[in-house]
Amino acid sequence: MKARPILFSAPMVRALLDGRKTQTRRILKPQPPVECGIHYMLGNESWLDDENQSPLRHYWEAWGGPLFENKPADHLCGSHSVRSPHGKPGDQLWVREAWSTHACFDHIPPRDLTTRSIHYQADGTIKTGKYRQAFHMPRWASRITLEIISVRVERLQDISESDALAEGIESITGDKTIYHWDFPKPYPDHAVSGYQSARSAYQELWCEISGRDSYDANPWVWVIEFRRVEQ
Predict the structure, then answer these.
(1) What's this model's pTM, rounded to 2 decimal places?
(2) Reported CATH class of domain 3-168+212-229
(3) Distance CA 225, CA 163 (A)
(4) Burial of 56 (C-beta count, 10 Å sphere; 0-12/13-18/19+)
(5) What is the pLDDT of residue 48?
(6) CA 161, CA 25: separation in Å to the nearest integer?
(7) Where are any strands of DSSP class E within 116-169?
(8) Taking the domains of the chain in order of start, what are their residue ranges?
(9) Which tens digits make up the pLDDT trace of 22-59?
């Protein structure tokens, strides 16, 4: 079992703590070339070592373009394959989030901190100490550990309504049901806030983080399903 860091914004940390978020999508890098067509996940092939078996390897076939032109002599098609950088089922992810310590420790870099007095941005406005970016959170300061259940690859816009809810989208039912990723408390007026479906709310969440061009491009993404591990 391996443990890797993963970044989450404050709203998504709150969704994790509430138990609403059990999936995350991350852009696949590099993206398959445009000439790639058929995509599939390699199965548990007996001739492959464990590190190269499903679900770590995803494979695309190319019957045209540079990949096809430069295919190995003993292959019928060109190919593009990727391995999950996020781990496999059973591995763990420890969450990095925005944080601070007391102002008296502001001059100390994260790697040299020993204090356990941590304030997390997701819990409210940071009122003491300087804002520290999630990327700089050391392992000992992380309060959330996730265990990977499954890893797969799909197009971003193929997300289902149920998967959008698993991404942490919250619903409120009143005169009608509306959706959002981080409803203010107390809940807002239904008439002016929220989206009509979990998928549309997730689309806006993605655009807020990665930009509308990124959503419109419909990239291939890693879909990581997980459960929270009690610490």
Answers:
(1) 0.87
(2) alpha beta
(3) 10
(4) buried
(5) 66
(6) 14
(7) 119-120, 145-155
(8) 3-168+212-229
(9) 999 999 999 998 888 888 876 656 566 666 665 567 88
